[in-house]
Amino acid sequence: MDFRLLKHFITLSDTLHFGRASELCHTSPSTLSRSLQQLENELATTLIERDNRHVSLTPQGMHFQRYARDTLDQWETIKRTLADEAAQLTGDISIYCSVTASYSFLYELLSDFRLQHPGIEFKLHTGDPANAMNRVLSGDDDMAITPRPRTPPPALAFKSLTRSSLVFIAPTSPAEWLPHTPESSTAQQWETVPMILSEAGLSREYADTWFRALGVTPRIYAQVAGHEAIVSMVGLGFGVGVVPKIVLDNSPLAESVKILHVKPELPYYDVGLCVLNRRLKRPRIQALWEAVSERRP
Amino acid sequence: MDFRLLKHFITLSDTLHFGRASELCHTSPSTLSRSLQQLENELATTLIERDNRHVSLTPQGMHFQRYARDTLDQWETIKRTLADEAAQLTGDISIYCSVTASYSFLYELLSDFRLQHPGIEFKLHTGDPANAMNRVLSGDDDMAITPRPRTPPPALAFKSLTRSSLVFIAPTSPAEWLPHTPESSTAQQWETVPMILSEAGLSREYADTWFRALGVTPRIYAQVAGHEAIVSMVGLGFGVGVVPKIVLDNSPLAESVKILHVKPELPYYDVGLCVLNRRLKRPRIQALWEAVSERRP
DNA sequence: GACGCCTATTGCGTAAAACGCTATATTTGC
DNA sequence: GCAAATATAGCGTTTTACGCAATAGGCGTC
């Protein structure tokens, strides 16, 4: 069923005259006759009673006329609607990040963008930054805020937002296992410290590297998913943790812990936004990506 | 826009895979690809984001998917509806007849038919029987109950319902101009009688013929449209009228008038149903026509 | 009552378009 | 890095659609 058939039928049912209708449709009477035949075959119904001299609608024809008009109207409506939607970006963008990132970066990142593109909805998923890249690679989320790995997968595009340092944190309450001179680290003063580390992710890798350089196998008290939980456990006095400083700055438990200024310091790392290269073709993703580039000159 | 494009799009948006969708559509992947291109061209929008390895719906695609499903649903619905309507006759049948006919014939004519074809509505127009054939010939009404003329127009089909005689009627109240011996008519006793006749139609023609045979030019007191009004005027004592006996039999004023048994008697005539031959092709008209044939064995 | 006009329909030759096969480019997983 | 997967463009063939001209039938008119 082609919409041209509907147009032909409507014109015909308005004029009740094949010759005049064919002119209005910019076609020949024979084409119009065949259009109507095709329509009536598909519907297995007579829509227009006609002979060489008279043309009139059957009851079914009147009914079908309403259908045809509605259908063409709806077609015009969807065309206009889709054009409007294309002009104004719409759809969802899902972002995966840590709770900390949702506090610290996101507002700044999205506040302007939301005003500029009110048709776009954001779906925010928070969780352990260690999963961030996989969530993007698997397509579960469009974007993620994550520490930039040393060698990002080629399918991902990366954009730095800020740098942050990893820090050791200890409870402010006293504990006998606290290293006495964290500024000059010795192996033996760290061997008995109960450590609270990430299960995985860059902070864990950096911490492991740090201990290996010191020649120490740390006593791991707990492995935690999510940096925020590390702050909690350290604040409760369970041990010493390693977290990005930015997590500490945004933590409501910052008072319960203190930074241990160890030597050598843990490395800085980039925190940035990542996205699948191929999703950058999506207009709304591309728009956000570029908005991030142009932010804060 | 062809509905096949919509089907292709829906299958594609369900499977998100050109190969599998093409099998479901019983076509080739290249056809499917071109269907989608055509659709996107007509809509000037990207519906499906795709590369050699991934297929996904855009926001517009999701919106259009709803439209496409609705549209195909509506198409199936109208097909079913029209098929039902075709199985059960529907539409209007308009009938023109005199008030008398509407009392006397119509109930009998239509009562069974209405039960058998509840989808058909009747539009009843009453008026002077003299107009009946013209109403049908011009297409204003589908059918009419009318006296059968001596030579019916070739475009009309005719079917007798009953015979009726024309009668002279006079007021029951005395009047000096009343013919004293209607049974043996003489010219002079009729010349002064105030006659109340139809303006036109068969009853008028027959009356004229009757008077001409008698060699009398009647004194016409009033020319009336509609036999029922003749009974009224005669009942009020204005003169002598000529009406079909059946009108008298159905008149509430029958008590106010009496039949004059004139010699020679006015002729009988057929009262029947007429319809345009070409309208007999309409199923509902044909059904009624045949129901009339089979009525009352 | 025969003739001529009007008009929907059909036959047929041509034009267009749609289809499927194949090759290609590109991506992904091992 | 290689092989498998897959959407798409090119191209030859088939199918479909179009319009012209002829046909058939109804209707008004002389």
TrEMBL record, chains A, B:
<dbReference type="InterPro" id="IPR036390">
    <property type="entry name" value="WH_DNA-bd_sf"/>
</dbReference>
<feature type="domain" description="HTH lysR-type">
    <location>
        <begin position="1"/>
        <end position="58"/>
    </location>
</feature>
<keyword id="KW-0238">DNA-binding</keyword>
<dbReference type="InterPro" id="IPR036388">
    <property type="entry name" value="WH-like_DNA-bd_sf"/>
</dbReference>
<dbReference type="Pfam" id="PF00126">
    <property type="entry name" value="HTH_1"/>
</dbReference>
<keyword id="KW-0805">Transcription regulation</keyword>
<dbReference type="InterPro" id="IPR005119">
    <property type="entry name" value="LysR_subst-bd"/>
</dbReference>
<dbReference type="InterPro" id="IPR000847">
    <property type="entry name" value="LysR_HTH_N"/>
</dbReference>
<dbReference type="Pfam" id="PF03466">
    <property type="entry name" value="LysR_substrate"/>
</dbReference>
<keyword id="KW-0804">Transcription</keyword>
<comment type="similarity">
    <text>Belongs to the LysR transcriptional regulatory family.</text>
</comment>
<protein>
    <submittedName>
        <fullName>HTH-type transcriptional activator IlvY</fullName>
    </submittedName>
</protein>
